[in-house]
Amino acid sequence: MGEKARPCLVSCSVLKHELEKLAKEGELDADLVFVSKYFHVDYELLERNLRRIIEKSLTLFYGSIILVYGDLCLGPNNEMKKLAEEYNLIKVDALNCIDCLLGGKGNVLEADPNHNLLFLYPGMIEFFTHFKAEAQRENIDEDSINKLFSGLNGIILLDTIGETAKYKKEIEKLHTGLKILETKAIGLNNLKQLLLEAIERSKQKTKQA
Q1: Cβ contacts of residue 129 below 8 Å, gap of 6+?
Q2: Rounded to an integer, what distance in angstroms lies between the CA atom of residue 130 and that of residue 198?
Q3: Are 74 and 45 in contact (CB under 8 A)?
Q4: How far is Cα 57 from Cα 53, in angstroms, rounded to an integer?
Q5: Distance of alpha carbon 101 from alpha carbon 1, whole angstroms
Q6: Are 88 and 81 within 8 A, CB to CB?
Q7: String of DSSP letters for 128-195
């Protein structure tokens, strides 16, 4: 089977930059399959497409399938965990994509206990850029768009791939009305450890089967 026995990570494309960099640098030996981050505006749409990708991946890859999604990505009632159990898959131990970048296990709750910060990183900046462009095409004015960010204290820029200056410029173009309070150079190690832990759990599960 060779390389086909490698684990396959089915991930939201919001983490594509980080996962591809880990793979390119030889830090992650896995096949990568991405589901569009733009489905995230609709739980039903996301679930439908995620199921389609999971079922296709199960037929294409010999290795175990691991979901790189947070517990909350399909809703607040453990819908993503239930989906993983339905397909007998291992899922990373994280609440959402931000938690993945912070190492999972609920670290995001410690980083933002009052839920009043906007964490931005490459994939999420692209998400909001796309969202804003789509809203403008539908003649939704900027003030209405910016109401989404009302009540937030500011932005935390998570520098995962070392392109801080580039992404600060992209954030400025979003015109959220929020200031960048801090830039955290978190790199990729937290995410890598989270993924390796999930891969190890998957190996143990396979041995026990």
Answers
A1: 170, 173, 174
A2: 31
A3: no
A4: 6
A5: 31
A6: no
A7: HHHHHHHHHHTT--HHHHHGGGTT--EEEEE-SSS-HHHHHHHHHHH--S--EEEEE---SHHHHHHH
Measure the CA–CA gap between 85 and 157, rounded to whole angstroms.
33
* pLDDT above 70 for 209: no
Q: Taking the model in full, what pTM does it have?
A: 0.93
CA distance 38 to 135: 13
Over residues 19-30, the pLDDT tens digits come to: 999 999 999 999
Tokens standing for residue 10: 């089915």
Query: pLDDT tens digits, residue range 106-118?
Result: 999 999 999 999 9
How many other CB atoms sit within 10 Å of the CB of residue 124? Answer: 20
> Is residue 166 over pLDDT 70?
yes
Q: What is the pLDDT of residues 49-59, one digit of tens each?
A: 999 999 999 99
